[in-house]
Design goal:
Layout: E1 21-30, H1 41-48, E2 56-58, E3 64-68, H2 75-93, E4 99-101, H3 120-129, H4 131-134, E5 140-146, H5 150-160, H6 164-169, E6 176-177, E7 180-181, H7 187-192, E8 198-199, H8 207-220, E9 230-231, E10 233-235, E11 241-248, H9 253-275, H10 285-298, E12 304-306, E13 311-313, H11 315-332, H12 336-349, H13 352-363, H14 366-379
Parallel strand pairs: 8-9
Antiparallel strand pairs: 1-3, 1-4, 1-5, 2-3, 5-11, 6-7, 10-11, 12-13
Helix pairs in contact: 2-9, 5-9, 9-11, 9-12, 11-12, 13-14
Length: 382
């Protein structure tokens, strides 16, 4: 999440639906020898002062850094921006002799060793959310897609709900928490749902519906403004973008690019359906929560729950169904070959969560797990 009250420059030039895209990534900071979760006060202070580079921003804890790409119109440009952003963050972490761990949870680190970043905004977050803010030892990946106006953003948002589970399943990277194998592939998703304003909102209808819900949440004291909405998908509070916040941090650069490509294509497809007057799919919130839970539980390592068909499906079938819906759009954009190649690569090697658990089961050494995540993430900066 953003911690300075602003969204990244991702998608600043909204223009037509889905023309622009940008990505935020959040990283843990670890010691390169022990791989312990370690505060980076110099890195955090530099980011807070705007001295860590244009892509690097602070996070709520000094054991974390956030990056944000600029506005991108092609996958090639996005990849270059992600490389630059990760490299800048790595240089900033090196101020404290630390390296980046690109996964949504640390294999054994605890919130008890995470000092809150100094600043009025962070103090306000702790005052508002108490232990939920202090214990926020998770990180995420957020994708911004350009939209022309709030009504379009809401029309697309209302139609994204059935796709949240499969998009989540493809990005899972948080099987461990506080030194324990949780049995989940995205423990971050389970942790995040503790907030009263997390998850997928019910259909909002239009910009007016969104504003009424936001006003009620502000009146309740749960949020200060739209930048504090922790929904899986939300309209940006400051920019002409729709922001997808459901994903775990993607350990590899390829997976980050793939997730952004799928999200941007989905926005274009769903905006087209809204323009044609196609109805919002009817979906019970209880069923969606079950599908979201199933994706967090198994990732791509077990069956997913299709919230529209209300049945378990093979993860490859679920991914294939998503690709089938997006194929015409991806082909028109000239992105079909790249996206399908990246999907096949992901299905072949497994998610970050699956690879982490495999390393743990093979070695019994959580340091080996952390080292693998650090190494895979650093490879993307070459």
């Amino acid at each position: 999440m953003r911690t300075d009250g602003e969204d990244p420059e991702s998608g600043r030039d909204g223009g037509s639906v889905g023309r622009t895209v940008g990505v935020e990534e959040e990283f843990h900071l670890v010691d390169p020898g022990t791989f312990e979760l370690t505060p980076g006060p110099r890195a955090s202070a530099a980011a807070l002062a705007g001295e860590a580079g244009p892509h690097v921003h602070p996070e709520i804890a000094t054991t974390q850094l956030e990056t944000a790409t600029g506005v991108c119109t092609s996958l090639g440009q996005l990849r270059a921006e992600l490389v630059a952003a990760r490299a800048e963050a790595a240089v900033s972490a090196a101020r404290d002799g630390l390296v980046l761990l690109p996964a949504s949870t640390h294999p054994w680190g605890s919130w008890r060793t995470m000092p809150v970043t100094p600043g009025d905004r962070y103090e306000a977050m702790v005052k508002r959310w108490a232990g939920l803010a202090r214990q926020q030892d998770i990180t995420g990946c957020h994708v911004h897609v350009g939209v022309p106006d709030l009504d379009t953003a809401v029309a697309v948002l209302d139609r994204t709900r059935p796709y949240i589970p499969v998009l989540l399943a493809m990005t899972v990277s948080s099987p461990f928490h506080d030194g324990v194998d949780t049995g989940y592939e995205s423990w971050r998703t389970l942790w995040w749902t503790r907030f009263p304003h997390a998850g997928a909102p019910e259909p909002l209808g239009d910009a007016g519906g969104y504003r009424r819900v936001l006003a009620a949440l502000v009146a309740s004291g749960v949020v200060e403004d739209g930048s504090h909405l922790y929904w899986d998908v939300r309209p940006s509070a400051r920019l002409p973008t729709l922001e997808f916040r459901l994903a775990d941090v993607c350990t590899t650069l390829d997976d980050a690019v793939l997730h952004a490509a799928l999200v941007r294509s989905l926005v274009r497809v769903l905006a087209g359906r809204a323009q044609r007057g196609e109805p919002v799919p009817e979906l019970r919130p209880e069923v969606l929560r079950a599908a979201r839970w199933r994706a967090a539980r198994s990732g791509l390592s077990g069956p997913l729950f299709d919230p529209l068909r209300c049945e378990l499906v093979d993860p490859r079938e679920a991914v294939g169904g998503l690709l089938a819906e997006l194929e015409p759009d991806l082909a028109d954009a000239g992105e079909w070959d790249e996206v399908t190649a990246r999907v096949q690569d992901l299905l072949g090697r497994g998610t970050s969560a699956a690879r982490q658990r495999s390393t743990w089961l093979r070695t019994g050494d959580r340091r080996a797990v952390a080292e693998q995540v650090v190494r895979e993430g650093a490879a993307g900066r070459a």
